[in-house]
Design goal:
By secondary structure, this protein is mostly helical. The chain has one domain. Helix content is 75%, strand content 0%. It has helices spanning 6-29, 32-35, 39-52, 57-71, 79-90, 96-113, 118-133. Helix 1 runs parallel beside helix 4, helix 5 runs antiparallel to helix 6 and helix 5 (79-90) packs parallel to helix 7 (118-133). The N and C termini lie far apart (35 Å).
Length: 138
């Protein structure tokens, strides 16, 4: 949806944040079998929000956390696409809420995809250590 004015951009970003929250609630209420036929489309849209909307990362990560919880080990197929956004979220010391939600997402992912997180661990752990050493992080 092209934006013509700043007000329209703000409105669009607000709607995207609300839709992320809606995805989160739907996924939490639905069964894995309900989600599986739609998980590609949902994840694609959430990645698009992470790529284009800097104000809704917290909401998008929360929705992704719900998908991880629902799909368990089947979520591993999304890790290559999520990994750069997750690292950026962990590095986001200016918006500590995003960093906090990102840490929770790492916990959920590591719990639910178990050993399949191994290819991503080095970068995630390095980023977490850097965050702990960041004196500006809330």
């Amino acid at each position: 949806m092209p934006c013509l004015s700043n007000d329209e951009k703000v409105q669009k970003e607000g709607i995207q944040g609300t839709l992320c929250g809606l995805f989160q609630v739907i996924v939490l209420k639905a069964t894995k079998d309900d989600i599986l036929p739609h998980h590609d489309a949902i994840q694609t849209n959430l990645f698009h929000v992470l790529k284009t909307n800097a104000t809704c990362h917290e909401e998008a990560f929360k929705a992704i956390s719900a998908i991880v919880l629902s799909l368990k080990n089947d979520f591993v197929i999304f890790m290559p696409g999520l990994h750069p956004f997750l690292i950026a979220g962990l590095r986001n010391s200016e918006a500590y809420q995003v960093c906090d939600v990102s840490v929770g997402l790492v916990c959920g992912i590591s719990r639910d995809i178990v050993s399949n997180i191994q290819p991503f661990c080095d970068k995630i752990m390095r980023t977490l250590v850097d965050a702990l050493q960041n004196v500006t992080l809330h």
